Amino acid sequence: MAPKIRRIRINLSWLYILLLIGIGWLLFSQSGANPQKIEWAEVKEMFLGGDIKEIKFIRNDYKGNITIKPDRLSKYSEKFGGKLPTSSPHFFFLVSDKFDAESEFGALNAQMPASDQVKVTIENQSRVWGSVLQWIIFPIILIVMWLWMLNSMNRNMGGGSMGSGQGGIFNVGKSTGKLADKNKVNVTFKDVAGLYGAKEEVMEIVDFLKNPSKYTALGGKIPKGALLVGPPGTGKTLLAKAVAGEANVPFFSISGSDFVEMFVGVGASRVRDLFRQAKEKAPCIVFIDEIDAVGRARAKNAGFSSNDERENTLNQLLTEMDGFDTNSGVIILAATNRADILDKALLRAGRFDRQIHVDLPELKERVEIFKVHMKDLKVDPNFDVDFIAKNTPGFSGADIANVCNEAALTAARKNKPMVDKSDFLDAVDRIVGGLERKNATIMTPEEKRTTAYHEAGHAVVGWLLPYGDNVFKVSIIPRGQALGLTWYLPDEKKMYPKSYMIQQMCCLIGGRVAEEIINGEPATGALNDLERMTNMAYGMVQYYGMSERIGNVSFYDSTGSRGYDISKPYSEQTAEVMDQEVKDLVNSVHEQTKKLLLDHKDGFVQVAELLLEKEVIFAEDIEKILGPKVKHEEKASKAEAITN
Length: 644
Ligand code: ATP
Known about the structure:
Distance between the termini: 74 Å
Radius of gyration: 40 Å
Shape: elongated
Bound molecules: adenosine-5'-triphosphate
Largest sheet: 6 strands, mixed
Strand content: 5-15%
Structural class: alpha/beta
Helix content: 40-55%
Strand order of the largest sheet: 6-8-9-10-7-11
Number of helices: 24
């Protein structure tokens, strides 16, 4: 067997520690002996008293160091209160440049008997080492420490160079992207569940990377880049990786925010560096996550903008995308949650001219995503994946991955041999509402009752309105920040009629109205409901043209460019009318909801009391009290039929 070669790695922190110890030792060795200073008159007295063993006089320092005879030390120890050093020299004295050492010490020794004469050495001290220390070593130490500090600062700021993987102040202008070698991208389309449309669109890119001549032979040009647009966690990064994995090419990934640094000009230079490295590795995929961090539309009135650095970076990105040959084999994939706010120049033909929508998964896709993430879990064989997929509308792929992981952790915590339905349901609840605070004694009976009526208000209004929420569980066990929660399955619809919006507002205000009916006054628990309802009301009036007095106008700013404008695109009078319309709408919603709850007061009180008693109730419990849920299917399909 061939002997293994072990690489010895020098850890730089040891060097710094040794350096610090060295500095400490130098300082300590200079001050360690700590001899006491005395005057020349005292020296003479000691000398003639026969207490001195030796004097070393350093002529160029005008300084004498005195060593006392061991048997006389105690005499001085008492006098100097224990401050006297135990090792020599014990004292020192300073003199002026006029001091004639030979004659002064010669005269003193002449007065002493021959046996008591003091050994005196007079010399000049060499200053070479002092100068070396002062002029070479200290500056070196300072430079090393300065570099070290900058280095660690840079590392903390996420500095590092793509490819080399090393940080350092000198790499600040280098791209911080991560390169995954083609052998290391082990994600393929099999790992991406659902997303049929998106997968089909990126298939062409994979085909080009695998087989470029097929396209170039006919003179065709492959798009330089594609923009993956969709809500967070829907699998955009995963899809981009799968493209690289399927085509078996290297994968560069960088986040848009990595371009934006505190140093001016760094963003642009990182963009240049990214493209230089990508070209070297072509064919390859460059993935820019959160491109909106740099790609946001440039301000029209740039004079007022403080985003010059970001705009320079964006300009560089645009230039680089123009600069490389269409068929060079570098394909840029970028991801964003908001394509509408991106600069138009970025989206024009020849840049990110293709937009691939990666939407929240629908029921069938959710089933597949669950299956992908359950592969590694030990799941109860009787578990119905369709059931959990139905209970997770609006969940993204990342949420589903999280549910699976949480479910496995919950089952492990309960020492179960496998993960079952209740673990998955617990995990969903936990992700939707936060952790249950079962042991919280924070609620007084009064608060608990108000919470029960508040939640019952939401649930009953949702149950009775055709477009109301499909309530399936209500709880008054505190979770996260909330004291109670109503779970419902939202509609997976793409379009909502006005009556839907109004009834949803009724569901939101249902909790507040219930409090008013029961307690005669509102409480603060409805903050989140009111916030959502107000946003909905303003949305209806300002954006969707659902207010008669404002008419079919929309002040929605899809480009985000109006953010810099100080003036509003409507007059003061229109603003007042809009406010009044919102107020009228909310008042009418309040009245309708109050009437609905009062008309069904018996059922409403029964639901609330049952909730108070059991703490958690389900759709079946509500059905027993109020009858079957009022459905809206017919109305919904009618509304769709009109607009289609
Ligand atoms: P963001 O916009 O926040 O960057 P993203 O759209 O890039 O999010 P990803 O990082 O790709 O989302 O997804 C996060 C995780 O969610 C993935 O690592 C994967 O585990 C899971 N996931 C998302 N979509 C899917 C899917 N379609 N199939 C399987 N797993 C998925």
